[in-house]
Amino acid sequence: MNGKFIVIYLFLFAVVGVFKLEASDWSSLVDLRGSWLFTVGDDPVWAEPATDVHDWDKIYAPRKWEYYYEGYNGYGWYRKNFSIQSFPATGYVFLFLGYIDDVDEVFINGQKVGQTGKFPPHYRTAYNVERQYVVPVSLLNRDHNVIAVRVFDEALDGGIVNAGKFGLYYDRDQALMKYDLSGTWKFSIDNFGNMNSPETDDSNWADIYVPMKWDNQGYRDFDGIAWYHKRFSLPESLKGQDLYLVLGKIDDFDKVYLNGEKIGEVEDLPGYSRSRQDKAWQLYRIYKIPLNLLKNKNLISVEVRDIGLDGGIYEGPLGIATEDEVQALKSKIQHVQDDDSWKSILRNLLHLFD
Amino acid sequence: MKKIITIQLILLLALLGTTNAFASAYGPDEKNLNGMWKFRIGDNMEWASPNYDDSRWNLIKVPDRWENEGYPGYDGYAWYRTSLIVPASMQQQSIILEMGYIDDADEVYFNGTLIGKTGSFPPHFSTAYTALRKYQVPGNLIHFGEKNVIAVRVYDAMLDGGIIAGDLKMYTTGLLPPFDINLAGIWQFNKGRSYDENRTNPILVPGAWENQGYNDYDGYAVYSKKIEISGELASQRLVLLAGRIDDADMVFINGKYIGQTGKFGENNGNIYQEFRNYFLPPNTLKPGENLLEIRVYDSGGYGGIYEGPVGIMTQDKFREYWKAKRRN
């Protein structure tokens, strides 16, 4: 194992509350709770920031629309203007919109940022999926931003019905990364052979946002093996340093390759007890990068195996970090655990091979 | 003797007056129609007309079985008539005429136009004496602030007959949908999973199919209607309101699938209580004649497009309609 990888193994006791613990260090950029403009009906022009909305109703969100429109089923659009006090210069922020019944499509400043469920005629509800979208910072302005949410409700409760986090958020841990790897990756659930090789042409693979579970991105209920690819060039400033690849949390197991060479894995190892297997999805993946593997153009390939429920690289931070940031991240993670120590115990740092 | 009859008539008129006076106690949006109606046994389609002179008809208490009202042992056809002032406050409202329970089959005419029927007359007789009659009254048939005539054609096969029970009234259920095409009325109907032009029979929409000759029928059926539409209307965003359907439905226009509510062949829970709105992008309907199909799956109990509103309006009107319906 000679220093090939580190896995910070946060083994949590089986206390229900612990599993809901927010490991990401979410910082709220914009709270969207409150008054929104709303209309029944459907028209693609309503995604445009310049659309005339003077005759739209004002309603509160999140709250099921039946509170205002008894028995209403069908399409409805929500719109809201917002400003952002401060946000990161580059990269991505997260949009949380809670639970939407049944299907939604979200636009920010006229650009589609995501969809959950399927609209008619190939309708599929997603009423029980918490909405989470990745928004490129380049899409946002300091002022005069417009978010438009197109919603379709087949029957019963409809609209943006309830939410925990409701707005734009930023993961502070992500700021620790020297090189940001969050954002759009290439993705395949089909095995074309040599899937982890840099020679494999992934240009026709699907796009996927990372970190976000694949279930929210068109692969609902998919269990099994999938491949993530990210190609990048290392900045000059990082060359020659001891570097770590931070891949956040992955549900359930992963094998990680840099330029075709395996640099680490979390897998269903023999000797893991049944209960430990079940915790693999809560491990932070921090892999040491062997210096001689990095080139000018690099491919990270992550082979993910999901054995049930949600799957994929689902939580950040993601990026390349030096020893300092890894220590900072580890102490933050430890700190979060300590805050909750009365109901959880940081068991050990297993596989600390460095 | 003649004097007594006159006094009786005066008393009756007073009673009728009282009935109308009571109506105001229900509020401006409800008119009580219990009380004395004009009545005559026999059958003549001219009796549906608002201009028909029924002054020589007998009076009968409604609701009550006609066997109790001087027609013991009578089976067959009979007509009821009454008139009422529909208050102007009911304008722009969706108006329901509730006719109680009728034994066995009926047709209801409002100012001479058929607005609903339940059960069926001979030769394809079927009773619907357990069904509560609720008919939508199209606003364009109503003379607001003036006299309107309701005529009810009843057929009783045996035992009790007539408008036997219930609480007869006319009331509003909220804002009238501003339809460009009101689809309440006669549609074509065939059993089975797909539209079969050669096997269709007329059916009234809205209204459960059980009360229209398809007693105890569960499973698949198709409602179809040919609708004419102008090029100007077809080019706009439209919304098809398909009312409440028991249990699940799929909508097709000119053979093309538009959408559905609920799932065929499965248990759909309470989805039968949900109002259907189908959104039609511009030119979904073509100028001229279009075939609208609503395929229905009913897993048990009542089936079909059982309650309105049913019709097509522009999305602009639909938005205004819901803005006006907003509560809170």
What does it look like?
The termini of chain A are close together. With about 350 residues, chain A is mainly β. The longest helix of chain A has 17 residues, at about 325-340. Mean pLDDT of chain A is about 85; it is low at about 1-20 and about 340-354. Chain A folds into 2 domains: about 5-25 and about 175-340, Galactose-binding domain-like (Jelly Rolls, Sandwich), CATH 2.60.120.260; about 35-165, Sandwich (Jelly Rolls), CATH 2.60.120. Chain A has helices spanning about 15-20, 275, 325-340, and strands at about 5-10, 25-30, 35-40, 55-60, 75-80, 90-100, 105-110, 110-115, 130-135, 145-155, 160, 165-170, 180, 185-190, 205-210, 225-230, 245-250, 255-260, 260-265, 285-290, 300-305, 310-320. Chain B is mainly β. Chain B has 2 domains: about 1-175, Sandwich (Jelly Rolls); about 180-325, Jelly Rolls (Sandwich). Chain B has 3 helices and 21 strands. Chain B has helices at about 1-25, 230-235, 315-325; strands at about 30, 35-40, 60, 75-85, 95-105, 105-110, 115-120, 130-135, 145-155, 160-165, 170-175, 180, 185-190, 200-205, 220-230, 240-245, 250-255, 255-260, 275-280, 290-300, 305-315. A 6-stranded antiparallel beta sheet of chain B has the order 3-2-4-9-6-7, with helices on one face. Chain B has a 6-stranded antiparallel beta sheet with strand order 14-13-15-20-17-18. In chain B, strands 1, 5, 8, 10 and 11 form a 5-stranded antiparallel beta sheet that branches. In chain B, a hairpin with a 2-residue loop joins strand 17 (about 250-255) and strand 18. Chain B is globular. The termini of chain B are far apart. Classes of the chains: A mainly beta (about 350), B mainly beta (about 325).
